[in-house]
Amino acid sequence: MPDLNAATATATQPQSVIGRIVPDRRRHKRVALKVFGRFMRLDSKEECPCKLIDISIGGASIQSPQAVEENERVIAYFDEIGRIEGVVVRRFDAGFAIEINATRHKREKLAATLTWMINRNLLNLPDDRRHDRIVPRLSQSLLRLAEGVVLQCRVLDISVSGASIATESRPPIGEHVQLGRLRARVVRHHDRGVGLEFTDIQNANALRRHFG
Hints:
With about 210 residues, the chain is an alpha+beta fold. It has helices at about 5, 15-20, 105-125, 205-210; strands at about 30-40, 45-55, 60-65, 75-80, 80-90, 95-100, 140-145, 150-160, 160-165, 175-180, 180-190, 195-200. The chain has four helices and twelve strands, in the order ααββββββαββββββα.
């Protein structure tokens, strides 16, 4: 599993918000990441807007105008990070903190995603170009848009964190799509199509087997 602690040593904590949270005994190093998303209270089944304040593989602080109760179970979805779920362990002025409930495999994927996001921010990279890309031999694929429309497309290059695809369609930047079975988000337009950022960091060997 990536050394998330080492990668986050220079992360800046949001003191204006974190200072209002009662002290705890965290086992995992938190990193400050400002990512918008939504969460669902299981009793109401309604989605509420929220913003991630900080996160580790063990927990997260979430800002939201929606009040929650301690020990309540919530499910949240954040762009670039994906779905996390857990139990509310405390509340503060602007939101609440949860203890993340996840399998070891999901925690490893979360650690890889957080490490990638931190490195991208520290290096000021605009997208997934930190990862080596391959030009696939099997380039034909399908692109499913948010409204369910499925388009033929061609993968120009691909990495563990994103892909550049050739397509006549130009879904809006920020729209969630699916390349084959891979969930992604449109992060840029170019002269031949669009650039995608995967919701989860992918397995490099699996990509090579699938795309040749």
